[in-house]
Amino acid sequence: MPTTPTATNPTPSAPTPTTPTPTPATTDPTATPSLPTPTTPTPPTTPSLPAPTTPTPAPTTTEPTATPPAPVPTLTAAAQAPAATAPTWDDLVTAALLGTDRHTPPGAAPGRAAPSALLDAAAAETVRRRAGLRPGRAAPRPEPAPADPRPTLPTPAARRLALLLADRPGTGGAGRRGTAPDLMELLPQWLAAANARGFAPPPEALPRLLDAARGRTDLRPAALRFAGPRALWLARLNPEWRFALRAAPGGDASLPRPEETGRIEKLWQEGLFAERVALLASLRRRAPHAARALLESTWPTERAEDRLMFLDSLRTGLGERDEPFLEAALADRSRNVRATAAELLSALPGSALAARMAVRAAACVAVDHGYDTPTLTVEAPHECDADMERDGVAPKAPAGRGERSWWLGQLVEAAPLGAWPARLGGRTPEQIVALPVADDWLGELHAAWCRAAVRQRDAAWSRALLGPPSAPGAGGPGAVSLAERAKLLSTLPAGERAEWVAGFIAVHGLSEAFQLLGVCAVPWAAPLGGAVVDALNIARDAGSYPWSFSGVMGLAERCLDPSEASRLDALLAVPDEPEDASPGAGGYWAEAFQRLGTTLRLRAVMAQELGEGQTP
C-alpha cells in the first residue's frame, strides 16, 4: 500500500551524498497486474530536493480508477538501444552478410540473442525507411493494343495451338525413339495453315508465341504474321521481344502508311534502330521509291553498320530506279556497304555496273576452234585495278585460293548471263555449259555461272547447270556441290523442282538428297512423296543403318502430304533382318514408320480443326 510522502522544508538544501537506490525494474509483462488498495488520494506537493536522509524508494503512484496498462513485449537490447547508438542500415546489412558471430551491429549484445536482435533492428529500420519515402509519380498508362480485324481462331484450333506451344522441343527425325509426334516440329506447318486461313490468335497465346519465335528464328516470319499487330504492341513493352520490331513480315498495322508522311518522318528521325528498320522494310514493300527516298534523306549521317542493314532492305522491290543511289553507294567509305551495293547492281542486268562487268568477263572467256571440238579458253585477270575494286571486286583472295581465279569468279558471277550467248557464238545456255573448258578452268567457270544464275534468278541457266536428274550427284555438268544444286533448284517453279528431285532420288537414293528436299515446296507433291517413301522402304529392306536417315525421316514428318499415311500401314511390321543389318534395325524402322504415320494423321486433324477447305 503506498505511503504518504513526508512533507519537506520548502527551503532547498544541498543533498547529503548517499548511495543511489536503483529504480524498480519493469515488472514481467506476462504477470497479472494487481489493483491498488483504494485510499484517499493525496494532492501533489511541490517538488523539492531530497532531505539529507537515506531516501525511501519512490513508489509507483497509480490512479485508483485507471485501467491497467496492456502488457508490453520485452524488446531485445538492439531494439531498446537509444537512437544515438542505433545501427545504420549498412551496419545491419554487413552483419547479415558476415553473420553475427563475426560482426555484431552496434547496440546488440553478442551471443545467442544476437540474430534475434539483428532481425528486430532490421524490422524497425525497415519501417523507419519506408515511412520516410514519398510515393513516386505514377507511370503513364500504355496506349491500348490495336484491334485485330481478322476472324477469331476456332476453339479446337486454339486448344491445339496451346498444346503445340506448351510442348518442349524434341530432337526431331528418326534419331529419337517412341511413336509420339514431335509437336514443336509441327508448329511451323500449323502456323502456315493458320496464316493461309487468315485467323487471329487468342490474346492469351501471344506471350508464348513470342517466346517461341524468340527461341527459333525459323519460326519468326510465320509466327509474327500470325500474331499480328498486337505482338508488336507487346514487343514495345518487353525488351526480350524487341526482335519482333525488325523481323515483322509486313502488314504491321501500327506502322504508318505511305500517305502518312508526317508519322513516317517522325518515326524515321526519332525511332529506335529496330523501329526504323521495320519502317523501311514495310515502306519498301508498299512504296519502294518512297522508301529509297527516305533512306537517301539521312544516308550521309547514318553509321556504317546501320547503312549496311538499311541497304539490304532494298533487295525487296529492287528495280532500275534504284541504280543511281546504288551507284553512288559504290564510293561509300565502308567496304561492306560497297560490296552490297555492287551485288545489288549486278542483279540488275541493265545496270551500268553489269555492263562494265560483262566487258571484263568477256575478255576472259572465249571459244577456241583450234581443238578437235570447240573449247572454252580462260584467261583470268592479272591484276585487280582500282575500277574493279570500286565495282565490288575484293582484291584479297581467301586462304588457299589463287588471286587470278578469285578475281575471275567475281567478274563472271557479276556479269549478266544474257550477254554470254552473243559472246560465245549464239549458243544456248545448255550448249554453252556442254562445251569443254581448257586448262582445268571448268569448275571455277561453272561455279561462277551457278552463282550468277541464283543471283539473277535465271531459270534457263539454272536448268542448264543442273542437267538431268541422272547426272552425277556431287558434281553435275555445272554444279560443283549439292548445296549449289539446291540453290539452283530454288529458281525453278515448285512443280518442276519436285519432279526433278523425285527423279534424282529414284537414281541416287536418299543419301545425297537431303539438301535438295529442303528447297521443295510443302507439302511435297505426289511424285516426290512417293519417291521418298519408296526410298525409305528400300533402305529398310536392305538393312541399312537407320540413324543415317534421321534427317530425311524428320523432313518427311513435316513435309509429306497426309494422304501418304495409308501407304505406311504396310511398313509397320518388323521385317526379317539380314545377316549384315544393324542390330535391332528392323524394330527401329517399324517404330519410325509408325511415328511417321501417326504424325501425318495428326496433321490431317489439325487441318480439319482450322477448317481447311471451307470458306472462313
Note the topology.
Blueprint (H helix, E strand, L loop, with lengths): L76 H4 L8 H10 L15 H18 L23 H12 L16 H15 L8 H10 L4 H8 L1 H7 L7 H5 L13 H10 L2 H14 L1 H11 L5 H9 L10 H7 L5 H12 L5 H11 L2 E4 L6 E4 L7 H5 L12 H12 L5 H4 L5 H6 L7 H14 L3 H8 L15 H8 L4 H15 L5 H4 L8 H16 L8 H10 L25 H25 L7
Antiparallel strand pairs: 1-2
Helix pairs in contact: 2-3, 4-5, 5-7, 6-7, 10-11, 11-12, 13-15, 14-15, 16-18, 18-21, 21-22, 21-23, 24-26, 27-28
List keywords for this structure.
single chain, 616 residues, mainly alpha, two-stranded antiparallel sheet, 2 strands, disordered N terminus
Structure description:
The protein has 616 residues and is mainly alpha-helical. 47% of the residues lie in helices and 1% in strands. The chain is built from 28 helices and 2 strands. It has a two-stranded antiparallel ribbon with strand order 1-2. β1 (365-368) and β2 form a beta hairpin. α14 (323-329) packs antiparallel against α15. It is globular.
Secondary-structure-derived class: mainly alpha
Overall radius of gyration: 42 Å
Main pleated sheet: 2 strands, antiparallel
Parts with pLDDT < 50 across at least 5 consecutive residues: 1-67, 75-84, 170-175
Mean pLDDT: 81
Physical arrangement of strands within the biggest beta sheet = 1-2
Amount of beta strand: under 5%
Termini gap = 96 Å
Provide a brief overview of the structure.
With about 625 residues, this protein is mostly helical. The chain is about 45% helix and about 0% strand. It has helices spanning about 75-80, 90-100, 115-130, 155-165, 185-195, 205-215, 220-225, 230-235, 245, 260-270, 275-285, 290-300, 305-310, 325-330, 335-345, 350-360, 385-390, 405-415, 420-425, 430-435, 440-455, 460-465, 480-490, 495-510, 515, 525-540, 550-560, 585-610, and strands at about 365-370, 375-380.
